[in-house]
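To: structure desk
From: M.T.
Subject: fold request, one chain
Message: Could you run this one when you get a chance? Sequence is below, nothing fancy, just the single chain.
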Amino acid sequence: MRPLTLLLGLILAAPLGAATLGEESGFEVNALGGSDFEVLRQQQMGATEMWCAAASYVEVRQGLSETTPIYLRRPLGPAQSAQGRRSVVFSLSNSGLPADDLGRVSINADTPGMMMKSAAARRFCRDAFTRSTK
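Reply: Done. Structure tokens follow.
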């Protein structure tokens, strides 16, 4: 009886865990080496989705804290890990980047050196989901 209860518990819990990622699980993010990684652009993907994908990579795939700073290293350009695709390169290091403009009032994926904590970038994931369900 005990193995049956355990099996039933695992079956019921499995869909709940997968459902927490929602549309974030569809992002394509590839490590580039060192602290750099690239978010591959998909159709209809803007700056907020790029930052969302970066936060998802940092927290879910890398297992890092939501307080981890994410830096934009290179704006949209040719992908390094997928031929014929375009990507934005992010980094966990600000080495070689210009200082972030702390007075900025808008978000973009065009300004090298722009920094956002993972938790702040992750908020865009919820915004994208909310917009897609209306």
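Reply (cont.): The chain has one domain: 26-132. Let me know if you need anything else for the meeting.
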